[in-house]
Amino acid sequence: MPRPWKETIEAHRRDVRDAILECTSALVAEHGLRSVTMSQIAEQAGIGRATLYKYFPDIETILLAWHERQVATHLDHLAHVRDQAGEAGARLQHVLVAYAFISRQSRGHGDSAVRAFLHRDEQVAQAHRRLHDMIGDLLAEGARSGAFRDDVPADELATYCLHAVSGAGELPSEDAVHRLVTVIMTGLRRVSGPP
Amino acid sequence: MPRPWKETIEAHRRDVRDAILECTSALVAEHGLRSVTMSQIAEQAGIGRATLYKYFPDIETILLAWHERQVATHLDHLAHVRDQAGEAGARLQHVLVAYAFISRQSRGHGDSAVRAFLHRDEQVAQAHRRLHDMIGDLLAEGARSGAFRDDVPADELATYCLHAVSGAGELPSEDAVHRLVTVIMTGLRRVSGPP
C-alpha cells in the first residue's frame, strides 16, 4: 500500500533537509565557514537556490541545525552507553571512552572560528550541561557504592572528567585515548596514604 | 646623576606602551572587542590619537601585544614555581595550582570571541607548547624516581594535566581548585590492583 501523500511529503522534506545539512557540513569542513556560498550548497545538494532558501535563510542557520543534530545524536549515544548493565565504575569508563572518541572526531569539523561560532549556541550549552549531569550522577552513584572517592563533590569530579577527556583531541592514537581514560579513572579512586 | 637621554626616552616609550596595553585590555574586557575604538584608547591612556598610531596600527595588534605580554609573564611565573626546591611530585602540584589560578583569572578577560581571536596567535601556541614540555619534563622526572606512573608516556600525561586543570575556570571556589589538583595528582599515581 502506498504511503499517504502527507507522509510522503514529510519524508521528502526530511531527506532534502538532511542532504542540505550534510553538504553544508562537508563544504565548510573543506573550505571554511567564510568561503562557502548558498549557491554551492544548493548545487551540491542537487536542489535549486530558491528551494534552498525555503529551508534555510543562511549558512550559519544551516550549520547550527547540522551541529544541533550532531550533538543530539551524540548525547543519545552516550545515554545509551550509560544505560548498559554494570556498576557505576565500568559504565563511567565506557561513557568517557565514547565521549573521547566523539571529541576526537569533532576536531576534524572546521577551524577554531567555526567551532567558536557553533559553541556559542544555547542548545549546545544545554547539551553540555546534560552530559555534565549524566557524568555527575554516575560519580555520585559510584561514591555511594564505594567505587569512587567521596572527598570531592560529584559535580566537581564531573568537571574534572569532562575537561580531562577533552585532551583526547590532541592524542596521537586510539591506544593513547584509552590510556587517558585509565588515568582519569585512577584520579577518581579513593585515596589511602600520602599522595 | 640623571639618566642618559636615550635611556629616559626608552623608559618613556615603555611606559606609554604599557599604558596603552593596560587601557585597551580594560576597555575590551568591559565593552567587547568590537565596540572599542582607537580614540577611546588614546583618551584613556592620556595621549593623542596620532601618538597612539605611532605605537600601534589597530586594536587587534594592541590586544595581541597585551596578551603576549600576559602569557610571557605567566610562563615566567610558572617556570619560577617549577624551579623551587623539592621533588617532582610537589613541584608539579605547585605548577598545576599556579596554572589553575591563571586559567581562572583569564576567563574574566573578554568574551569567547576575544579568546578565540587571541588563541589563534602563534606566540600563544608556542607558549602552550613550552608549558606542555615543562610539565612533561616534571612527569618524566617523577616517573624515573617512582613518584608517578610510568605505564603512560609523560607527554600524554602532560596533555591530561593541562586539559584537566583547565576545568578550574568553571569551579565555584579556590578550595574547589585545590581539590581539582588533588584529583589530577591522584590520576598520576602508580596503580596497583584493579582500578
Automatic annotation (TrEMBL), chains A, B:
It holds the Pfam family TetR_C_43. Coiled coil: none annotated. One of its GO terms (molecular function) is transcription cis-regulatory region binding. It comes from Nonomuraea turkmeniaca. Residues 14-74 form the HTH tetR-type domain. InterPro entries: Homeodomain-like_sf, HTH-type_TetR-like_transc_reg, HTH_TetR, Tet_transcr_reg_TetR-rel_C_sf, TetR_SbtR-like_C. This is TetR/AcrR family transcriptional regulator. Keywords: DNA-binding, Transcription, Transcription regulation. Residues 37-56 bind DNA. The lineage of its organism: Bacteria, Bacillati, Actinomycetota, Actinomycetes, Streptosporangiales. PROSITE patterns: HTH_TETR_2. The keyword Disulfide bond does not apply. The keyword Transmembrane does not apply.
